[in-house]
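Write out structure tokens for CW domain-containing protein.
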Amino acid sequence: MLLIIMVISFCHTTLSEYQIMITYGVPITYSDYSNLSLSWDDCVDACSSNSSCIVVYEEDCQMFSIGQISKVERLTSGTKVAFRLYQNTTLTCPAEDTLVESPFLSYSDPYWTLPTCPENFTLFVRDEGFWCMQMATSETCLYRNESITACAENYGGVLSGIENLEEFNFLAARAIELNKEITDGYAVYFFWVNGDRKSTCMPPTVQSASCNGTNEFTFSDPTLSSDPQGYVWLSTQPDGLTHPTTPPADCLSLKYEDSTSSCGIDDCSCAASSKTGTSGYCFKGYACGLQLQLF
Ligand SMILES: *[C@@H]1O[C@H](CO)[C@@H](O)[C@H](O)[C@H]1NC(C)=O
Ligand SMILES: *[C@@H]1O[C@H](CO)[C@@H](O)[C@H](O)[C@H]1NC(C)=O
Ligand SMILES: *[C@@H]1O[C@H](CO)[C@@H](O)[C@H](O)[C@H]1NC(C)=O
Ligand SMILES: *[C@@H]1O[C@H](CO)[C@@H](O)[C@H](O)[C@H]1NC(C)=O
Ligand SMILES: *[C@@H]1O[C@H](CO)[C@@H](O)[C@H](O)[C@H]1NC(C)=O
Ligand SMILES: *[C@@H]1O[C@H](CO)[C@@H](O)[C@H](O)[C@H]1NC(C)=O
């Protein structure tokens, strides 16, 4: 009976951007969920209309977002689960629930596996794809080039850009925590983020509409949009054009200000790593990101 519901769901939703597969199962491995306490039908509807939902479980209507759940056991009776799969799921109708081919679902008896970020990374949904990110730290203070190498070698990632305010707030909150936690002798701790000053926006070029703020920089983060909104600048920054320095302020970092216990982005020399004393600092880490590995 349930299998029939599943097949109907598939065959009648080909024009929408997602498909719902309803079957029997139980969540096995997950980091978090929301407890919606809805009836099963309302539960499936709630998942259908929420683009971050990937699984709902019948008991208390537990809703799992993409990245929160990695393993669901298949049952042949008992509690129900529904998967919300994106449109580019390929399957031939009628299909068995174990035969679904999707970038978001893989089956190996008796478990379905779903994509999750590596340990300690948090998932962000961007227009250009699913992006896993963490504020990584280092034993030593890092030059910008060393942070790029560390992110690649330790995590297979690239220095992360900052797409929007949600991502900025995530990184800033972590930077504030780390500034309170780390006590190895520097006044403040800074963190490298993605961005390189454009060759067309270097001194003696002066500020103009095409070299003013975030658009003074290019970004190598592969899922960042062309006009990212997450670079929340410290007051009067970036100032590499209005107050040129030697070496030039060609790189970007997330800086912590002790006086306000807050953070913002600043342009700075790529060859900075640490300075001792009361106005000292240490570039203690970096925003590291990588694409969510789909199947
Ligand atoms: C879900 O919420 C309901 C109602 O608040 C509660 O009775 C139930 O124990 C919760 N279940 C879980 C798994 O948190
Ligand atoms: C979708 O679900 C997530 C996780 O439960 C929740 O935080 C978010 O507010 C929901 N979005 C909508 C549009 O209901
Ligand atoms: C389909 O899935 C692939 C991943 O397998 C993804 O790269 C691609 O962007 C998706 N296409 C659409 C139209 O969603
Ligand atoms: C994740 O973070 C914890 C706590 O900081 C750490 O002990 C663990 O080694 C980290 N895991 C990985 C894979 O980096
Ligand atoms: C730079 O942008 C700010 C607003 O963000 C604007 O007030 C200012 O006039 C711009 N400067 C130039 C030179 O375009
Ligand atoms: C990294 O940058 C620093 C400062 O510019 C430089 O001294 C060092 O040689 C560079 N290291 C590598 C491996 O490129």
